[in-house]
Amino acid sequence: MASLRFPFSFSQTQPPHYSRPLSSFPVAAAVGATAVGATAAFAVLTSSSSSSHRQFLETALNFLFSSDRTSLPAWGTLSLADMSVPVVESKSGATFPSVLGDSQKLCGIGLRRKSVFGLKNIDVYAFGVYADDNDIKECLAGKFEKLSALELKGNKEFTEDILENDISVTVSLQIVYGRLSISSVRSAFEESVGSRLQKFGGSDNKELLQRFTAQFKDEIKIPKGSVINISREKGYVLRTSIDGQEVGSIQSKLLCKSILDLYLGEEPFDKQAKEDIELNLASYLQK
Ligand SMILES: CCCCCCCCCCCC(=O)O
């Protein structure tokens, strides 16, 4: 039988490692558990089937029982973003801040693996998806607020509305493969974004794809640790920056949807990441 371990070895200075970290649901469970007693938290912890959720819950509990904590957040409103701890994608070691800019909260992280010459899979980049919770609420609360976060997870209409609507979202790619050239970044985008442009917009979008990939100019270096941020901003403006330097912006609803579809669509690069992201986005409607 598992034993109760309080406090966990949580350090405020060292970012916690999660392989699959960010479900508001277990955090909410942890917060709730504080109110009803550690026994309930223990029950949730020991019955959690997924080791990542278990890990995440442990961290949440650490936070709650940490001596550094000065005040308890309101019932059910705690998310990792509120804890302001960076999140580490455990397989690659890539670290993601829990909040981007003023208002975008980290909703989930994942890993993009790609097969090379059909032979072996390499880990190319880790990614984090950020969204503005107020935007989500403004756009989608009217339609979905009666459904629980768990009911919304996997709900096709909800996912479709996230892809389609003018909601601020950023996908942050952190390169983990050490020998990446900018031309391979261009061709990877050509393949993945190209297939989505075709799926949603038909075959007549070569020029749009070319405008997007042309942002990744030959002189740009992309060593391990480089960060490519791709943001959908208000008015369906897709802004791209590399290591904090803007490389271009393109106003196109179709392009925005095609990029987000890579991570949240029917065939996402990382299925578990998509689930975590959806659950967190859905939880914003409940707050
Ligand atoms: C050797 C493999 C090279 C792959 C480079 C991918 C770099 C970024 C591409 C982003 C879009 C995608 O993941 O398809």
UniProtKB/TrEMBL annotation:
Database matches in InterPro entries: Chalcone_isomerase, Chalcone_isomerase_3-sand, Chalcone_isomerase_bundle_sf, Chalcone_isomerase_sf, FAP1
Gene Ontology terms describing biological process: fatty acid metabolic process; flavonoid biosynthetic process
GO cellular component, one term: chloroplast stroma
SUPFAM superfamilies: Chalcone isomerase
Domain of life: Eukaryota
Pfam families the record matches: Chalcone_2 (PF16035)
GO MF entries: fatty acid binding; intramolecular lyase activity
Domain Chalcone isomerase per the UniProt entry, residue ranges: 105-277
PANTHER family per the UniProt record, alphabetical: CHALCONE ISOMERASE DOMAIN-CONTAINING PROTEIN (PTHR47589:SF5), FATTY-ACID-BINDING PROTEIN 1 (PTHR47589)
Record family assignment: Belongs to the chalcone isomerase family.
Protein name: Chalcone isomerase domain-containing protein
Species the sequence originates in: Arachis hypogaea (Peanut)
